[in-house]
Amino acid sequence: MEKLQKMAVIGSGTMGHGISQVLAMSGYEVTMIDISDEILKKAMEKIKWSLQKFAEKRRIKPEDVETILSRIKTTTSVEEGVKDADFVIEAVPEKMDLKKQIFSKADKAAPKHAILATNTSSLSITEISEATERPDKVVGMHFFNPPQLMPLVEVIKGEHTSDETVNITVELAKKLGKTPVVCRKDTRGFIVNRILGAVFNEAFWAVYNKEVTMEEVDSAVKYKAGFPMGIFELADYVGLDVLYYVSKVMEEAFGDIAKPCPIVEPLVKEGKLGQKTGQGFYDWSKGRPRIPFHLADNFDIMRIYAVAVNEAARLIYDDVADPEDIDTAMKFGTGWPSGPCEIADREGIDVIVNKLKELYEKTGEARYKPCPLLEEYVSKNWLGRKTGRGFYKYG
Ligand SMILES: NC(=O)c1ccc[n+]([C@@H]2O[C@H](COP(=O)([O-])OP(=O)(O)OC[C@H]3O[C@@H](n4cnc5c(N)ncnc54)[C@H](O)[C@@H]3O)[C@@H](O)[C@H]2O)c1
Q: Which of 84, 85, 177, 185 to pair with 260, CA 20 to 30 A apart?
């Protein structure tokens, strides 16, 4: 394909306005599409505010603010917005019917060569692609919030997506200054949310079963593992309604392995959705919760490592991604200091497997059953750094 020049972004909400801004900052002409001029005006104001912040922090020149803004046009018509686009990114609400409708419309109006990408977090790329006459040119391009700042983009290959489409999308992500990782299969949760889902569940069940408190879990996660946020803190930050919805999608896809913990639903029903409502697991009315340092020894952080590594192993076993991509995704998408495969090699794959077996014997829960890949590594004496071979080779 010729060089990409013109972009269209459908949806100008939390993600869409940020993605439009990132595209314009990299020199692309962008048409941002939404359902009303009022929404589009607000989105443009948010972009302007964000660009001014970038200028204050000297990440762009003050005179660039207007130049970047001038690259973004707006319209309320999908047909008009995509008609000369080389690449379209959809970021409308997470509803399959709506996405299919938008894709069918965009497919009819966009040039034949245009790639149609979706920023969906949980829906099937394959199913969305089937609403078009160009399923080979439909791809997942999953940005993280806020797109202006988060360095990771997951590029997801649907069943019909061509390698060329994946390659063009990877190159675009790089041009935007992002780090792309390819998710070779259209698996629910892709890479980051699959591993995070397992980790959330472990923390939720431990507290639900009254083994520990949420402060103890968060203290261990922050001060022992060095994660940027506690798990309950992150859940509140993401939004418990979003988490609840994603947990249902994961359960439908993976069954008992992803059985959601009943700790979240009552909070959602009470409207305690986390940071955005001022109350979730924590009280956010006075700002970010303070996580006490002195509780860090009260929770066994190996439990979090064990379920994260098990999920990473399942992704590799299912040929979704390689260890390098999984580790990159977790470090760039969530700010973990090490990825799960690096953690496993450091801690010892035998140690991880023993922890999973211990938890499985204690509870009989499917999520603790070690992935066959981990059992295979142990039988080959691929235990990590200490034997020179684990997920990676050493020496
Ligand atoms: N918010 C996040 O943290 C996040 C992160 C990654 C991916 N995502 C995904 O990105 C997508 C958008 O999420 P969001 O948080 O930006 O949602 P949002 O509700 O903030 O924004 C959606 C926008 O789409 C517009 N819209 C609705 N119907 C439309 C139509 N028919 N045509 C054009 N525009 C329409 C809405 O007016 C709104 O401005 C979802 O698929 C979500 O799963 C969200």
A: 185
